[in-house]
Amino acid sequence: MAGADGERGAIPKHPQQLFFDNVNPATRLLEKRRQMYEVQDALENQKARFAKEEDQFRKKEEQLRVKDLQLQNQLVKFNKFLQDNEAKRQRSEKRAAEEAAQIKQKDDEILDLEKQLEDSKALCSKLEEEKDRNMKYEEFLELVKETCDDYAEISEIVERHSTLEGANIDLSELQADSETRIEELRNQFQIYKKEQEMEMMELRNKVAILQIELDECQKKRQQLQHEFDEVTQEDSRDSLFFGQILMSVENLFLRCTTKRKNIQHAQTPVDDESKQEGEDGQDQGEDSFRKKKDNAARQLKVILAYLKDFKEICEILRKERRGDPMRVKLARAWCT
After folding, report:
1. Is the distance from CB of 307 to CB of 260 less than 8 angstroms?
2. How far is CA 327 from CA 120, 243, 316, in A?
3. What are phi and psi of 43, to 5 degrees?
4. Which residues are in the DUF4200 domain (predicted)?
5. What does DSSP assign to residue 267?
6. Which of these, 302, 285, 289, 183, lies nearest to 250 by C-alpha position?
7. Sign of CA dihedral 186, 188, 189, 195
8. In the 8-state DSSP scheme, what is residue 186?
9. What's the rounded Cα separation, in Å, for the pair 201 and 215?
10. Where are the alpha helices (DSSP H) in the chain?
11. Residues 6+ apart with CB under 8 A from 195
């Protein structure tokens, strides 16, 4: 790490950059190449340092992976041990619960049987009492059989009574079913009537809501149409203003390049780089607006270069008026 820190201290963060005033483009190009080589050397040193650190990190990662595998194996063994103990505990608890359930079941069966025995004794006593009470009805049926010639046995009287009682029950049930059916039909009619009324009300409300939505949509459409017209007019004004700007830039560019033919800033390396960027943009399929904008930007750069030259000429003329012959010679040489 100390070596790495030393390498970091030895590598400069930025290449040394020299500033020259009034140098030609060739000198500037050589300076740019020198800076490029310095940056390339710095990048190579950083790549070597990063490769060394990456190797160290890879070794540490391998050690951590081995330790992780060991911990995983120990964890698997411990987990298996816990699972075996848990399975044994669950089996023991399950066996104990089953035995307790069986004991409880047997106790419940004993209690049920005792209760059934008591119920049977109570039922037997009740039946004995009921038999004693019903003996008078048997005596009455014997008397009816003896006084009436229509029935020869008591069973015929009981059977006739059962038949009539069954018919009465059937008729009562039929009457109750009929009344229930009538009530259901009446309720269904009332429900159907209410549903139809509610449906008609919902349809009226829906028609009113749709009418309101239609009015709002028409208003919105008119508003959007108005906004579209305004956007179209504004776009037309912007296009006209942009065309005027392009024509002004083109006129200034032509005035600078045609009236000062001995100075060709349009062929400087800066302009060549701009042209290369423009060609790359064209390869990517930019539209005509982007092309016009890039062309105007390049022309403005050329105009800026001419303005800088004009500013330097004015400064030189001021120096000449003040009596600086060296500046005057340089200005005259530059103008020629």
Report:
1. no
2. 141, 42, 6
3. -65, -40
4. 29-146
5. G
6. 302
7. positive
8. H
9. 21
10. 2-10, 25-147, 154-259, 269-283, 288-322, 325-335
11. none
